[in-house]
Design goal:
This protein is an alpha+beta fold. The chain has two domains: about 90 residues; about 90 residues, Alpha-Beta Complex (Photosynthetic Reaction Center, Chain H, domain 2). It is built from four helices and seven strands; from the N terminus they run αααββββββαβ. It has a seven-stranded mixed beta sheet with strand order 5-6-1-2-3-4-7, covered by helices on one side. A hairpin with a 4-residue loop joins β5 and β6. InterPro entries: PRC-brl_dom, PRC_barrel-like_sf. It comes from Sphingomonas lycopersici. Keywords: Membrane, Transmembrane, Transmembrane helix.
Length: about 190
């Protein structure tokens, strides 16, 4: 009876931990996910020991160690790094708005009049100057289904807390999908063929 209850507790803890970790809502939430994974692994260890399931015990003992590393990595290390980035942004914000490159990933790309154009999947900076050169954008499904676009970082692109704003319209992105755009153009399809 108690072992059955512990099995359910471990299952629920593992499911909650998976959701917290997969949500990618910041270092502290991900760290909380690993902490809950750790609790779940410990409970699975108890269930494995009590029921004589050696593989369950050993695999979850190992996972508990991995989870402890995850807690350290996300709660301590990554959270402190994020706090340092935020402090620099706060100190330097008076000159011009600053943003961390990883903050661009997942931001919506909005065109003229706030029209949703897609979601940023990555940002590429020049290795020599450190300046942003391109965004990799997944267009809205109404514009394209499978393709990713390379969007040159030009004047007119601005970053806010909510989105990246640009001067483009949906047909500007759609036009790049229907022909092989010049590699120097502002918008081009990324060829994913090997």
């Amino acid at each position: 009876m108690i072992i059955d209850a512990l099995g359910w507790i471990a299952l629920v803890a593992t499911c909650i931990a998976a959701l917290l970790t997969a949500a990618n809502l910041g270092a502290r939430i991900t760290g909380a996910g690993f902490a809950v994974f750790f609790v779940g692994a410990l409970v699975w260890c108890v269930v494995g020991y009590a029921t004589g399931q050696r593989q369950l015990l050993l695999s979850n003992a190992f996972l508990a160690l991995v989870d402890l590393f995850g807690v350290w990595r996300w709660f301590y290390h990554r959270a402190r790094a994020d706090d340092a980035v935020d402090r620099v942004k706060d100190e330097e914000e008076c000159r011009a708005p600053l943003f961390a490159l990883d903050e661009l990933i997942g931001k919506p790309l909005r065109g003229r009049n706030g029209i949703a154009l897609g979601t940023v999947q990555g940002a590429l900076a020049d290795g020599a100057t450190g300046r942003l050169r391109f965004l990799v954008v997944k267009p809205e499904s109404a514009i394209a289904s499978e393709d990713f676009l390379r969007l040159a970082w030009r004047r007119g692109l601005t970053v806010s807390a909510e989105a990246i704003e640009c001067n483009l319209l949906p047909h500007d992105l759609a036009a790049a999908l229907h022909h092989d755009a010049d590699r120097r153009s502002d918008v081009a399809v990324i060829d994913q063929r090997n």
